[in-house]
Fold these 3 entries.
Entry 1:
Amino acid sequence: MASEDTAGAVRAIFSEIPKRLDPDAAEGVDAMIRFNLTGNAGGTYFVEICDGAASVSTRSSRQPQLTMTMSAADYVALIEGKLNAQLAFMNGKLKMVGDMGLAMKLPSLFTRA
């Protein structure tokens, strides 16, 4: 995937996050998640889940409960279902620091495209 294609895909994914949150599944969840995407088209994104809604920003004064780090290309593949999260984690392509319970719950909080 070309760098500009990856950058566009990353922007599209993060712009869809607020629309993809399942408010019923997110009831009672109050969390800040930091995504560190590395390589071409990388960047830092913060996803806040609170009161059954999600918001995305590139800055946060709030301490994240979970930080996930991976290449931007691998993140796009993960979201597109081309990369398995558990295998990515076991192979070192996905690094997570913080609340592992929240990490396990993330897939159930969002609907698939």
Entry 2:
Amino acid sequence: MEKGLSRTQFLDKALEAYSNWYDIERKTSINIPLVATASFHEHQTGFALVRKAEMWSADRHEYVFIYSIPTLDIETFNKCIEDTRSRGDKLVDPVFGHMCTNIVTLFICDNATDDALKALKKYRYIKSFLFSLKGWLDAHTAAVILDDSNVCCNFSGRQTGEFMKKLLLRLSGEQKQYKLFKIGGNKV
């Protein structure tokens, strides 16, 4: 990554990347280092022949809570996770037609302690509503460590982790050559 890229600069690039599909809102908080939120909503329907004959519908929501901190330690991790969990639980509306809600906690930090990264990798929070008939809630966590250009995530947060890795690669100028398919013996 470029030398001198600060958390604020990375946050701006991340929000720019999220803004294509998500609604972005910048935050200022005194007690919690929450700097921005992003929300995504998707509604799918299936119908037979005409739209009035709707057979099913499913709503999917994703809320991203972005925290910017110099050093991610275990106390800050626990405090931010609890903040995300309480905010996320309030955003879920488990009605019939609700498929899932993903609550993403994204940390942008200069460095992180080993115990905080270990807790981040092990973190799991899943909630089912009426035996999943009214959907479920799943918590994803990821941390971008700017000092060593590393991304750490839990099992559920793999997509967020991959997204952040691609953003780090793009900012560092290391573009990968993707091979789409072969024609004859040549790769295109």
Entry 3:
Amino acid sequence: MEISARRLDNMTIFDVRGDVDLASSPELRKALLHELREARVPRVILNLKGVRYMDSSGVASLVEGLKVSRDLKARLILYGLNTTVREVLQLSKLVKIFEIYENEEQAVSP
């Protein structure tokens, strides 16, 4: 998995590529929590277009990020989910809990 960060105004966009699994999810969790807790970015956006596969540990990282964002009155936004990742979130009934958009333009708009 690769993560790169872009900062725009009051938001950080993480471009995530590869598989988010037991081996790589701690890196995603660390990046998310740093932006939310330490950098205090009010809006963190995850571009998941490049993610081929996500397992339960990847979902757990997203859920932890969502909880922290809500505690800090920030927003965690996902976009670009492929069919596989969307199905994982639907099976775990999380698709209704996350703020999910189809593309970056929708995700960055106020």
